[in-house]
Amino acid sequence: MKPVKRMMQDIERGVEQTRSLIGKHALDTRVMEAMKQVPRHEFVPADAQAYAYEDGPVPIGHGQTISQPYIVALMTDMLNPEPDHVVLEVGTGSGYQAAILSLLVKQVCSTEIVEPLAIAARERLQRLGYANVEVRLTDGYHGWAEHAPYDGIVVTAAAPAIPGPLVEQLKPGGRLVIPVGLPHNYQELMLVEKSEDNAVHTKAILGVAFVPLTGEHHK
C-alpha cells in the first residue's frame, strides 16, 4: 500500500477510535484532501524518511517533533478553517501544519522560537510553493499582534495554561486549538471559542502528548 494512502486510513481509524470524544464520525473533506496533498516526507529529516507517513510523531531536532498525522488533521478540523480566514500558528516546527493550513485559508502567520527551525521552515515552505505562509522568529506565547485579530489560532506545543495574549488576539467567533498541561503529565487538547460578545468558552477534547511550549514566560 502506498504510504499516503496508508496515512489517510490511519487518520480515518483514529477518528473512528475517538469519535465519542471528538463528537464526529469523519473530518471535513477539505481537511482530508489537504492532508493527502501535502508531501509529509518533505517535512521530516533525511534520516527519518522511512517514518514520514507513519501514524506517530517524528523528531525534527532541537527537542521538537512533527506531530502525528491524525492529530494534525484533528487540530486543523477543530479550527473550522474557511478560505477567507487568517490563522495564527504558534510553533512552526518543520512547517508541516502551516502547509496544511495554507491550502485551506487565506493567510497563515506562523511563529517559531527556535531560530534554526524557523529559518529551515521558511525556506522549505517557499521552496514548496506555500506562498501564503509567513514565518516569524519570535516567542509565540505573545502571539503576533500585527496581524490580529485571527479567525483561528493553533498551538503545536503544550502550555501549562491557555495564554492570555492568544485569547485576546482571537476574533469574536474565532477558535483557538491548544494542548494544555505539563511535560510528562496528562495533557488535554482544548478548544477555546470566543463568542460574538467576546465571552470565552473552553472544552477539553481528548488526552494528548506534546512537547512543551518554550519561552521566557516558563522560566
Plain-language structure description:
The chain is globular, with a radius of gyration of 16 Å. Helix 1 (3-17) packs across helix 4. The longest helix has 15 residues, at 3-17. The protein has a single domain, classed as 3-Layer(aba) Sandwich (Rossmann fold), CATH 3.40.50. It starts with a helix and ends in an 11-residue tail after the last strand. It has 219 residues and is α/β, with parallel strands linked by helices. The chain contains seven helices and nine strands; from the N terminus they run αααββαβαβαββαβββ. Strands 5-4-3-6-7-8-9 form a seven-stranded mixed β-sheet. The chain has a two-stranded antiparallel ribbon with strand order 1-2.
Topology:
Blueprint: H1 3-17, H2 19-22, H3 29-37, E1 58-61, E2 64-66, H4 69-78, E3 86-90, H5 96-102, E4 107-112, H6 115-127, E5 133-137, E6 150-155, H7 164-168, E7 170-180, E8 187-194, E9 200-208
Parallel strand pairs: 3-4, 3-6, 4-5, 6-7
Antiparallel strand pairs: 1-2, 7-8, 8-9
Helix pairs in contact: 1-4
Low-confidence stretches: none
The topology string of helices and strands comes to: HHHEEHEHEHEEHEEE
CATH class annotation: Alpha Beta
Outline the biggest β-sheet.
Answer: 7 strands, mixed
Into which percentage range does the β-strand content fall? 25-35%
How many strand segments? 9
SS-based class:
alpha/beta
The CATH topology label is Rossmann fold
Average residue pLDDT: 93
Strand order of the largest sheet: 5-4-3-6-7-8-9
CATH architecture: 3-Layer(aba) Sandwich
